[in-house]
Specification:
This protein has 64 residues and is an all-alpha fold. The protein contains 2 helices and no strands.
C-alpha cells in the first residue's frame, strides 16, 4: 500500500520556518522580528481605519 504525504502551506508554517532558521537572540533575528512586527502594525492600522473599503476592493467581481 502506498502512503501519501500532505504538505500544508500557510502563514503559521512559514512563521515556524523563519523561527527555526534564525537563531534566537541573534541581531539578524531581532531585526527581522522588528520588521515583521512593523509590517503587521501597518496592516492593522489600515484595517482599523478603512476595513470596509479594503474588503470592497478585495472582493472579486463576476468573471475575475
Amino acid at each position: 500500500m502506498q502512503e501519501r504525504i500532505r504538505r500544508q502551506n500557510g502563514t503559521e508554517n512559514a512563521t515556524e520556518d523563519v523561527a527555526e532558521t534564525v537563531a534566537p537572540g541573534s541581531e539578524h533575528g531581532e531585526r527581522l522580528r522588528d520588521e515583521i512586527d512593523d509590517l503587521l502594525d501597518e496592516i492593522d492600522e489600515v484595517l482599523e481605519s478603512n476595513a470596509e473599503e479594503f474588503v470592497k476592493n478585495y472582493v472579486q467581481k463576476g468573471g475575475e
